What does this fold into?
Amino acid sequence: MPSDEKAQVMDARTLDRVLSRIAHEILEHSKGCPDLALIGIRTRGAYLAERLAKKIRGVESLALPVGVLDITLYRDDLSSVAHQPVVKPTQLPFDVQGKIIVLVDDVLFTGRTVRAAIDAILDFGRPRAIQLAVLVDRGHRELPIRADYVGKVVPTTQGEEVRVRLSETDGMDQVSIEDLKSK
It folds into this structure.
């Protein structure tokens, strides 16, 4: 266990089980809607969206379109993020107009990332609805945003961080709470 890790919230097996549950909840709520699409917020949200699409395909043989959204230029704290922020491509291989979009992210915190993502999606068209699926809701909202699908609610303090590690980016699947003070 790294020295700044306070608690492990999910291991690989638990994370996989949580994603299976979220996939089933999305299917149950959408009732097989043909206009459903997933959009993952870059970086980890994009990988989670792909995993959810694979699980949904395994349960219902339904191949949902999946997109990837980069919200860098939509952030309200862009000037404090980096002097020269790195913008990666947004990939939406479908028209969002009239679709029910399930926006996917790893951690819901203040709500500002989700607000930026909604702004970005609306620049591509007007979906019928936007729903939110998150792996972890850690609280501390600054905006009136809530998730429709939540893997796990993890109460935290302002001095803690929820760290999501995925095999695609970090070589392992794990969610932990880390102490920001020791970083």
Notes: The longest strand covers residues 100-108. The radius of gyration is 16 Å.
